Structures are given as structure tokens and as C-alpha cells.
Amino acid sequence: MHPVLEDLIALLKLERIEENIFRGDSRDIGSAQVFGGQVVGQALSAAQHTVDGRVAHSLHAYFLRRGDMTAPIIYDVDRARDGGSFSNRRVVAIQHGRPILNLAASFQILEDGLDHQAEMPDVPPPEGLKDLTEVAADVLEKIPTKLRRFMTGKRPFEFRPVDPLSLDRRKKLPPKKQVWIRAVDRLPNDQALHQNLLAYVSDFELLATATLPHGLSFTRRNVIMASLDHALWFHREFRIDEWLLYTMDSPNASGARGFARGQLFTEEGVLVASTSQEGLVRMIDPSSEKPRSDPRKQA
């Protein structure tokens, strides 16, 4: 298996230190704090370790504080309920004695029922589209060094945007985008693992969709963004090592918050998951901006 993907899988597995308590490490992907998708994926993994014979169908998470990449994260699982068909788990991610994330996840025994779905948008297939690593050199020069390493380095996922990527956005665009995603190597037949990895990758670029109509860009330092919550629904079984179309839109931005939602389809057009996120989106004057420890502290 590709070493970068293998490392991510190990990162999401966690270490059990008590019956309902787990410990995880972090990886620096170029952000100022622990990547939110990592904490969500690890919290889901912690919940999965306490459930047998049932598959996650939804999760709802609130980001409370930014994570410290130099310290381990402790995941405390509350086995809230085990019913005849459903189980519910509450997970608190803790660093330095304080919660950084709360997550609730629901699990269900697989069963048949009514079946319908939304149609997949008509977009070009992933073959022939450029990967995210193929970013113009003049754009790379304008972004922070840590982020530049992430954009050009080896990653556990391929990202192929349907529309050309522009990190230094000035043009106002409709609040929509589509990206094909896929793990870089073949994975075991473990649906829980595929769900963990989708929870991880679903946090990429979702909130940024809310900035498209306003010509904002973090490369120009005229906006502060921080995820406040993240929700994910698993509709059908899938493989994250096969192409999934992540289609995103932002129906609203107001009150210094942006709201975005997404759907994930297989190449055959099967809807496998839906997601939504709200986050702080605050316009700033770059000349007057002072360093901040965590924008959520001023929210």
C-alpha cells in the first residue's frame, strides 16, 4: 500500500487505553491547527470501536477549539444507547484537559427499505482532468510554504477538480464546485475504514464554497475561516478507493457564517453520502490583522 495512505489508516485506527477511551496522534498537513477532518475521522473511529454488527449512518460534530498538533488527542466514548436496530454514541475529543470536539454518531443494523435518490450532476469524468498537484507555479508562489508543500507533495487522496483550480480567487463565482476524489491505493474490504476515510476527506474545501460569490481568498489574507460544525450521512455502501464525485454548494452566508452542503456519488451515479457544514467566515483588512490564537474565541 502507498506509504502516505498507510500512515493515514494507522492514524485513524487509534490506541485503546481503556474500555471506552482511545488516543490518537496528529499529522501536519499545512494548516494552522489539527485538520478538522482528522478529528472527525478519529472520533468516528473511536465510536466504531464500541459497536458490533452495526454500520454508521450519520454523525454530527461541533468543533470547539483548535487542535494542538504536538499533543495527543484523547477520545472519550459514551455508549449512550444500544437498541434493537440502532446504537448511538457520544464522543468527546480532549486535549490539555479541555474538549476540542463533540461528536454524536448513530449506527444501524443493515436492512432493506424504500429507495430513491437525487441525480448526479452531468460533469466530465475524472479521466482527463488534472490533479490538484498540477497547480500553476505563479499561484504556488502566493500561498504559504506549509500549504505549498501540501499542494505539491504526496497525499493519501487524489483530487481532480471539474473546474480549473484558482487559489488566488478575485473573480466572483457561483457558490458551487465539483471535485472527483479517490484514495491513492487499493484498500481492504472494510466499510468502517472507508467511512473513516470519507469522514476525513469530506472536510476538504467544503466551507470554502461559501466564499466563491464574494471573491475572497485566504491567499490574499482577506478572510478568516474556521469550521464550527460538520454533519455527514452515509446512505449506501461505497469504496473510497474508487472515484467519488464530491459536489458542493453554499445556499447561504450571513452573520459572519457560511453554510455549505455536499453530496458524494459513484461514477455510476449512485448517491452514497451527504454532508453539510457551517463555519465562521469573517472578512478582514489584511493591513490591520493581528495574529490570533483561535478565531472561534472571538465568535
Question: Mean of residue pLDDT?
Answer: 90
Output the structural class: alpha+beta
Proportion of residues in β-strands: 35-45%
Query: What is the CATH homology-level superfamily?
Result: Acyl-CoA thioesterase, double hotdog domain
Write a structural description.
- The structure is a single chain.
- This protein is α+β, with helices and mostly antiparallel strands and 299 residues long.
- It has a single domain (3-109, 126-298), classed as Beta Barrel (Porin), CATH 2.40.160.210.
- It contains five helices and twelve strands.
- The protein has helices at residues 3-13, 36-48, 137-140, 145-152, 191-201; strands at 15-18, 21-24, 55-63, 73-82, 86-95, 98-108, 157-161, 176-183, 223-234, 244-254, 257-266, 271-283.
- Strands 1-2-4-5-6-3-9-12-11-10-8-7 form a twelve-stranded antiparallel beta sheet, with helices on one face.
- Strand 5 and strand 6 (98-108) form a beta hairpin.
- Helix 2 (36-48) packs antiparallel against helix 5 (191-201).
- The longest helix has 13 residues, at 36-48.
- The protein is globular, with a radius of gyration of 19 Å.
- The N and C termini lie far apart (42 Å).
- The mean pLDDT is 90.
